[in-house]
Amino acid sequence: MAVPAVPKSRFVAADFWAAVNPEHLVYFCLNVGDGDAQVLILPAVPTGQVDPAGDPVQRRPVVVVDAGSPTKVRRFLDVLPAASGGRVPPIDVIDVVVATHPHGDHIAGLPDLLEDFGELVAEFWDPGYFHPTGTYFRIMELLARQTGVVYVQPTSGMRRFIGNTEVTVLTPSVALRNRYDTYGVDINNASISLRLATP
Question: Which of 4, 138, 148, 191 is 20 to 30 A away from residue 132, measured at CA?
Fold first, then answer.
């Protein structure tokens, strides 16, 4: 069955970045094959510093959810400041990196991301589901080297604010998390899912 095409009249040429304001949450879904990778640029937050003109300096918090490809997220973060025309300054902190669950199509690129940006990662979240693969062990090894990274195994109900953006963990449940060491817990069901809300 053919899917009807969206008529050309529905598309309007515009400059995407020109329409992005500091208070906008900007979401990017990067196609990496079976899994995906998501990069969220959160609304600007004050740093407490002022620039030479006396204006307050702001930064855009960054959240990375999964990285199934060894290169796609790293390259995206490298080119983002220039591609945005300066609307996203050079990334000096990745506020949170989330590994939703340890299947390769979600975490295969995380070791490379941690090697390139590890010193910039403030928090790393994973569901706590132990998965005996080389990629999983490599991620844990790299995290152990980064003494400044806060390692979190969130469960449903955990709420965290990054600036004025509320991040709520919807899954996995505490009850499911308590059964990870027993048989019958499917790795996909152990995934972290999040809800973000911002004014």
Answer: 148
pTM of the model: 0.90
Decide if 110 contacts 135 (C-beta within 8 A): yes
Least Cα distance to 109 among 145, 76, 62 occurs for 76
CB-CB neighbours of 167 under 10 Å: 22
CA distance 108 to 97: 14
Residue 191: closest CA among 157, 166, 154 = 154
User: What pLDDT digit, counting tens, does each position of 2-34 carry?
Assistant: 667 888 888 787 888 888 999 999 999 998 676
Beta-bridge mates of residue 181: none
User: What is the torsional sign of CA 18, 21, 24, 30?
Assistant: positive
Residue 149 has pLDDT above 90, yes or no: yes
Residue 138: count of CB within 10 angstroms of its CB = 16
Q: What is the DSSP string of 98-143?
A: E--S--HHHHTTHHHHHHHHGGGEEEEE-------SHHHHHHHHHH
